[in-house]
Amino acid sequence: MTSKYPFTELPTIDDTIAKPLKKLLGDDFFDLVNDFFTDFPSKFSDLKAARTSNDVDSIFRISHTLKSSSGSFGFTRLYKCLEHLEVQARNNNIIDPDNQIKLLEQEFGIVVSTLSED
Amino acid sequence: MLTNEQTKIFIVDDDHVTRHLVRKILSNSGYRIFEASDGSEAIQLFDEIEPHIILMDVMMPVINGYDACKAIREKANFLELPIIMLTGLDDVESVRASLDAGATDFISKPINWVLFEQRVQYALNARSMHEELQNQKSRLSQAQTLAKLGSWEMLIEDNAFFCSEELLHLLALSPSDKLSDLNELVNYSHPADKATVRAHILDAMIKGIGYQLEHRIISNDGSEIYVLQHADLIKDRFGNAIKLMGTVQDVTELRSTQATIHRQTYYDLLTDLPNRHFFTNTVTKSIVTMEDDNIVVVYMLTLDNLRNLSESLGYKATETVLISFSSRLKTLLNDSTVISRFNDNTFAIMSTGFQDLSHVTQMTEAIMALTSKSISIDTHDIFISVSIGISIYPIDNKSAESTILGAENAMLNASKQGGGRYLFYNEKSNKEAQDRLEIENDMRKGIQRGEFIPFYQPQIDVITGTITGFEALARWNHPTKGIISPFHFIDIAEKTGLILDLSRSIIEQACRQNQQWIQAGIGKFVLGVNLSIKQFIDHDIGKEISNILLQSGLSATQLDVEITESMAATEAADLINALQKLKKVGVTISMDDFGTGYSSLNQLQNFPVDTIKIDRSFINDIQGPGNGVMVKTIIAMSKSLGMNVIAEGVENLAQLDMLLEHGCNKIQGYLYSKPLPADEVCDFVASFDNSIKDNQKVL
């Protein structure tokens, strides 16, 4: 199944990635996720600043880094949205960047609240 | 193989979450984890860390993963370090760029953490195996260099050829040179060895027989080296030949060392003669390999009074005598003789390859003759004498050791008896040798004194009733023993070479006698004389006979030269030439003892023979099974070739009847007369003529 932006049909967290990782790391998993959650807002601010100054290279680099971490934990929808932005930034053709950033913020909130439920 | 605790893993990623994940997961298994957040930092820390594996993100600030990978790869010592790039999922371009940059492998992001450690472990295993392989290769290469051992292989399917650096080194080629095929390698063989090398390779390829061959090669700088080459044909599991593999080892030094060791072990350094070990081994080998009926003779020689010489002139003088005498001994060397300095004052000689003892007396005399001249040392002329002990295998002793010991004992006895003499190991041999020597000396004197004379046996044509000729037969008119038949001296004469003088004397006397009979009107006979094979070897027999005829005045047509069939069988080619020269002189030629030498009709046709003389053994038992047929065949065959036939040894009328029945009318034998001394021939001719006349009257 081919998924398209904004990837609403994908799960927030892909259990095939997250669960084995949780098993592998034990409590460390949550420590690492917390690190990510702590780090994310500052990086996200950088992303927004880059948008404001139309710094496409920075948008590309930050979205790439955040994408990598998101993917590692199995935050699939957040990962795909970041990848969507990264690809467009690389091609210097970002469509509706504000909306994409807003969506990313929402997705991050969903991830945090989903994991908090755990 | 490294343990996990020893293994250093270097994770380079600007995403600290990924770095932490890697650290958490891998450090749980004991690995030592090192981190860098971009390519630049990775390059800086690399030398300090010396990691065993690098996990490198592609997209990083400052210096990206590709450039960092390239920079690390350029460090010469880390060509084999596994560098695994962390690339985007389905990002084929990143994968290709990673591999181009020198990465070993890649892991797609998002990383499958469950399999992650296994992927890392796999890469580390591959690295260990590769490292071990490199170590083995290096060890092998070092060993090959030390052993001067090169290797090569040729794939059968496409003739592709590979060779090791050490082989190129052996051929004095540089490591960058290449041999295009096996033929090029073979071409480095010494010209004299090339065919042998090729033959072995062909055998290996066609018959699957591996080989080990020592040969010479001429290397690129022109130097000649000895190599030991091994090769084997390698087959797949179906038995199909897939490649020929070989090693080439420089054994030049080894050979030289072996030769030196061999020389020191088996040769005497003073005289350069083989020593006791060599001699004993050679006698043992000769006894094992000799043909039946042959003998092996060991002579032990000691120089008499050498101790006195040493005391008066010093050991240097002794050494000079030993060297000088050994040089003289070396003149006796031939293919069947080995000469050794057995110990200080003793030399040993072994002769083999013959069956009779006449060689023994000849050799003994030859050794004795070596002492006839003095040896000069400074102002002194030293006269030497030798004591010789002789032992013969298998007559005297039954082993190499006992034969040598026997000769040594005999030598000591000869020395005790005053030296300058020889003794055999046993009395019987002493007696035989002395007898033989006595006969030889007697014969020499006899020939000089004209004691050897011809007797004449008539040859009769029974149909015409005429004496056609006489065969001259040698007799020894010994001053004390009377007339001695050739049975007692011909063999010795042949073996000692006295036959040449003896035969010449008989032919000269017989020719003069025949000429006298012709001039006196006794009869115009054809005279048969016997020649020995020795008269054909290194002798111009045609010229010799021609001179004798000239001196005697006898016409060549009155002389018939007899050769034996056995001579014809052994010396065919040269003999035919010599006989043709004789024919040109004008004499006729008979083949004596025919029927005993297995000559074929074809062979006979090649010889310029006028007369065949049927051997007495067939006539003697002409009525025996097979003999009649044989005689009939010889007669028929001779006639068909246009040759005359004479039957020898005819003793009775029954034999004569049978011969006449088969068509042979010329005979020689006791039926008419035994061999007669010259002064009885006239009476025989007269009485024969009278009896024929009487018979004719009766008829």
Question: In terms of topology, how is this protein built?
Answer:
The complex is a heterodimer of chains A (118) and B (699).
Chain A: H1 15-25, H2 27-52, H3 56-73, H4 76-90, H5 97-117
Chain B: E1 8-12, H1 16-27, E2 32-36, H2 39-49, E3 53-57, H3 65-73, E4 83-88, H4 92-100, E5 105-109, H5 113-147, E6 149-155, E7 161-163, H6 165-170, H7 182-186, H8 194-207, E8 211-218, E9 224-235, E10 241-250, H9 252-266, H10 276-289, E11 295-303, H11 306-313, H12 315-330, E12 337-343, E13 346-354, H13 358-369, E14 375-377, E15 380-382, E16 386-393, H14 400-416, E17 422-424, H15 427-449, E18 452-461, E19 466-478, E20 482-484, H16 490-496, H17 499-519, E21 526-530, H18 541-552, E22 559-564, H19 565-570, H20 572-585, E23 588-594, H21 601-606, E24 611-614, H22 616-620, H23 627-640, E25 644-647, H24 653-662, E26 666-668, E27 676-677, H25 678-698
Helix pairs in contact in B: 2-3, 11-12, 17-18, 18-20
